[in-house]
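Take a careful look at the sequence and tokenised backbone pasted below. I need to know what the token row says about the fold.
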Amino acid sequence: MFSTFSPSVNLDAGITWGNQTASINWNHRLNDNLFFDHTATYTSYLFGMGLLLNPYNLSLSSGIKDFSHKSKATLYADKHKIKFGIEETFHRITPNSSMASIDSMVLNFGEPNPYNLAELNLFISDEFTVNDKLSIMAGLRLTHAIHFGEFSEINYNENGQPTDTVLYKKNEIIYQNTAPNISLSLRYLIAENNSLKLSYSYSNQY
């Protein structure tokens, strides 16, 4: 938290920010070759700013909340270490919540317009030890992303002027997309303390 106060000009200003996180994890070994790992996580970030310069009062805030679950299995088979599982994440993003007033007059900026986003990931990877010198890792992650309501979307014309507002109901799908993420790496051991590594990755952002 940061704050400042100047009596000479009657200025009071402050900035607050913070994180919260909580998680629970459960590991389970089915046998000597198969392990399961389950994790549930909650994270929250909040940023706020306030400015008071009599008779003006201004405050801004934004935040992100994430709820996620991940279940992963690890299988050891001969020279292979195979990982596969599922991961779901729900994001709630509030980019801007504003309030301003001048004496008794309060300026109305409207209700906050948070983004509700969900991600579903299916993933699998294989670490293959070819021999004492060469190992290969390949991975595939299939991601399905959804943006859903409640949400209000403002449309603009070519001059940047607002033309209308589209209102989406609660849980109504606004946008969704499915895309793969690929990773590939190779490591070759040249000497005990030296190795050559090559890697390639292809990913998508929403």
